[in-house]
Amino acid sequence: MSSISTEQRGGVSIIHLDDGKANALTTDSIAAIIAAVRDAEADDDVIAVVVHGREGRFSGGFDLNVMRGGDLAAMSNLVSDGGELVRTLYGASVPVVAACTGHALAAGALILLGCDVRVGADIDCKIGLNEVAIAMVLPDWAFTIATDRLSRRHLQRAVANARLTAGAAAVDSGFLDEVVAEADVLDTAVDRASELAALDATAYAGTVRKLRGSVLDQMDREIAADRAAAADLGS
What we know:
Blueprint: E1 4-9, E2 12-17, H1 27-42, E3 48-52, E4 56-59, H2 64-67, H3 72-90, E5 96-100, E6 102-105, H4 107-114, E7 117-121, E8 127-128, H5 140-149, H6 155-160, H7 167-173, E9 178-180, H8 185-197, H9 201-234
Parallel strand pairs: 2-3, 3-5, 4-6, 5-7, 6-8, 7-9
Antiparallel strand pairs: 1-2
Helix pairs in contact: 1-3, 3-4, 3-9, 5-9
């Protein structure tokens, strides 16, 4: 059974992430999310997208079976796939809202940074970039979007110090925009998506490109460089 499913609520396409566990990002699940976003962009009846986690879990990040499996090429390719996902969300021609239902770590937190608006559950959970704490360095594309989206006051602590936050602290640092009661996360996210969708669609897409174009182009270059490096590892 796929860990990714979709439903339509009015003109909002909801992408549900639910693998029954930590919502780890695999090559297949990443491809499924990207395909769902592309389908939404191509569907004239879709006005916005919501990315929704399972109870208590938004995403725990990349599949640890790959990240700890010793295959450097596979690891690099998975990370590059994650970059494609975050870049797809950030450059989408329709508004994208995150319904953050709980823990959002590493690549899960990067997905939040790729969404226009982030609604989180006001619960005790961990949100942030913990790579340094697990002896890893963020890829270049992740530094690029983190620098663009996170509060400058919190950048050192959020990235280099691997500080994890939740609730109001996650709003202050820039991972979330608001927190609501756990039971209201999805409905609020759909409401925020509908509010964004009330904007002129053509003007929105054009403005996103102007506002984020340099960041998106830089991410493209960095992801391509990572892909090339992975190809060398696999040869």
